[in-house]
Model the fold of this input.
Amino acid sequence: MDYILKLWVLIRRSIDMITDCWPYKAAAAGLSTLICFLFGGSEIILLIVMVFVCLDTLTKWVAITKRYLIDQGIQPTTTALLCGFFYAWKPGYLSSTALKQCWGEKIFTYGTLIVFAGMTGKLPEILIAGTQLNKAIAGGIYAYIAMTELFSILENFQDMGNKKVAQLKQYFCTIVSKITGTSFSVTISNKEDKKNS
Done:
């Protein structure tokens, strides 16, 4: 029974991760699908996803290390961040349990989406003007994952104290609101607060 509950929590968090800021992600996925349809290259978008996953992990570690250094009364310089990373492996900061949970959620969510994207290539070919639509759909799925990681990276920069992220968010909100004709806003909040609520 405990495994079923853990699986349910994992599925719920995966759905939350994917549906967070969905208009931006859907717009990027649609644009990516169009670009992949016209020019090909869904594999390049998958490479971008892998780079974004690495950047997300790195920026999260830096944000947590910076918080640890500030809590210890140490000025977070570049050298202190590099050295502080090793000292920040404490409960409440960096921990292998939190790392396993985060990576487990990402592997489950992104693995499912990547398998689905791969399956679109195995479906009967849908040709429009001599171009295979299936690969374009896979590119859209990869772009959706990349946008999920991009927003996670933005959250990490905001956790590091970067005030420019709020301006970037507002810029995105303005564009989506003008395109859709509705009022849309997004709040990038601390991931730890989301998990604790």
User: Anything to note?
Assistant: The CA atoms of residues 177 and 184 lie 5 Å apart.
